[in-house]
User: What shape does this take?
Amino acid sequence: MSSRAWWVLMFLMGPLVGVTFISAARTYAEASGLGGTAGGVGEAFSPLVGIWAPTFSACEIAAAFLLPFVAIRLVSGDRQSGALKLEIQHPMSAFARIAAKALVLLAGWFIALSAPAMAVALWRSYGGSLYWPELATVLAGHVLNAGLTIALAAAAASLVEHPSTAAILTLAVTVGTWIISFIAAVHGGFWERAVDYTPTAMVAQFQHGLVRLDVVLIAATLIVAGLMLGGIWMRLGVPLRRRVAESMVLGALMVAVILPCRLTHQSWDTSENRMNSFSREDERALRQIRKPLGIEAHLAPEDPRRVDLEHRVFSKLRRTLPKVQIHYISATSIGLFEQTNPHYGEIWYKLDGRSLMSRATTAEAVLATIYELAGLKVPEESAEEIFRGHPLAVPPRGAAMVFYLVWPGFIAVLAFISHWRKV
Assistant: This one.
């Protein structure tokens, strides 16, 4: 409560959430028929994608650019004031101390999440639909992302002496994860698999209602490792050589835990419209395939067809058939000069010594090819499973006043009272 950085975080959370929520709600209303737009368009809309994903994206911005300063201030403030030397004399271990600070920071983040909670309340007051499993998944993703930020900032604040250096180090790691995403989009391969475990990709999966056990386990491992690293370097009385050795052992243990976690394929789709899964009929049919399925797609990383194929079909196929092996083959990253190659664009499917080729990239065409190769009948889609959507042609009334006026004013008054009582 005495941290000015935390009050700045609280003050800015309202306007940040307000911008994203108002824009999302207005777009959702217009697509649902508000203002004379085409009626019925909103029937395909899901609040998860239309409202919650853009609204909670403000939390991702706050976690990347505001929360690190709060964490660094809490961890390195004692070091700057000399209080850490007094704390070291206390029987509490350094690891318990860093864990306590992390819990306090996490509690502060939960208080900051009251801003998007107000957006949820406003949405309900408009008559909007709310599916709790997908909303809880979005919230869990941003809490996990905040945990990664806290662990990173705590480790950086313990490693270096000055808070500004810790802030630069934290920002450098954050930017580094964005660079990995850029490299993955251009080159694919190993980088395309590694990008799934960056905070941005992790949050995107949760915002689409997808919970992957491997991502959760790896994120939890990184959080624990970051806090333990902070605890190691918080012990100023321990010789430098010993702290370096302990850090190296911690890094080896972290790698040893992460590698088997990558082999976990369990996942859950909590979205109401099952946007991360095939229909239940298709899933039952695909699970009849017992032998490994191999797919070779001759598409470059920046080819739009590959992006569409990966996000709409192959990602769902991996969840349904863990034994599927998908390989992308291309000589260049853009594929512009490969168009003259007669084999470019081909997608080969191989199963039990048989193979079929297709150039179609739609989900229906891919599934039809797999069924033909496996000798299965194409299942009929049940009318009951068709997602009808939740259109809502209501403008975001009162949201601007709540997020741009009431929230900042309320936080400013609380900050003044807190500072006045301290003085």
About this structure: The radius of gyration is 25 Å. DSSP finds 16 helices and six strands in the chain. Residues 36-43 have pLDDT under 50 and may be disordered.
